[in-house]
Amino acid sequence: MRKKRPALAALGVVVTLGLAGFAAVDASDSTTGATPRSKLTLTAPAAAGGGWDLASRELQQALRANSIVNNAQVVNVPGAGGTIGLGQFVELGADPTRLMMTGTVMEGAITVNASRVDLLDTTPIARLAEDYEVFIVPADSPFETLDDFLDAWRADPHGHAIGGGGLGGTDHLLTGLTAREADVDPAEVNYIAFAGGGEVMTALLSGTVELGVSGYNDFRDQIDAGNLRALAVSADEPVPGIDTPTFVEQGIDVALPNWRGVVAPPGISDEERDELIAIVTEATRTPEWEDALSRNRWVDSVLTGDDFGAFIREDQARVDAIIEELGL
């Protein structure tokens, strides 16, 4: 387990955390005698409408449509960049009928929130895909381009509220990296954390924040409807199907992918782990998952088992370094 560290300074002044717990388990929900093929519960450690929720439900659909699992369910446990869900998930014990969606967002939140557990306390199953973040504004915003916003930001760093996911997550890191590259002090940024992309969009449309930061797909429908305008995407090169220039193309040397994957509780047997890897691998080879990759503009990046575990260790170190460098 990760040793608890003092909480690090955050960019924002307001943190809105959705607090929720797993529903009480009664006899009808017992996993006694269940196998991953008969029953599988996917925990999305964020509110409905966000990236983890979307990825969980896309995976659920692939499992269901192809009868890979008889009964696949999704439960949402929002709060603290996924670390509330992580803490509860680790406490489930060696239950092979549970998976949790995770990714870059949780790595940052583990550090910033001084979480008592981290992803190394879980059983790595598979990395699934990567997508990218966007800076977004309402369609009637005075900020027509990224440069428009950056000019106003430099003039008054704290005067422009920015809404994103949990502290230390991808949204927060992208905001801090962009601030640094734009000669804005990250410590002066008014970053407001929400439980998920759905809440960020609500805050943006209601005028609570001027600029939103989240995964492209959290905002895609509103972009297509003309209600929101994307200013920049965090890919290192243009993304097919996304008609938004990258930060790099606009002179801001920032590129930040957002990976998503699934882990199992600690303590399951090697045989149970291998069966979960097989189940998830089968799902990623279905037409439904291929369609999800295409529709959501995700980049296929499947990595399983020990290789995925090694990736988590390396990526957590990378995210920790960014947080320390930015003083978040």
Automatic annotation (TrEMBL):
Keyword Transcription: no
InterPro entries reported in the protein's UniProt record: BUG, Bug_dom1
Pfam families: TctC (PF03401)
Entry keywords, A to Z: Signal
Signal peptide start-end: 1-23
Family, per entry: Belongs to the UPF0065 (bug) family.
Protein's UniProt name: Tripartite tricarboxylate transporter substrate binding protein
Lineage: Bacteria, Bacillati, Actinomycetota, Actinomycetes, Kitasatosporales
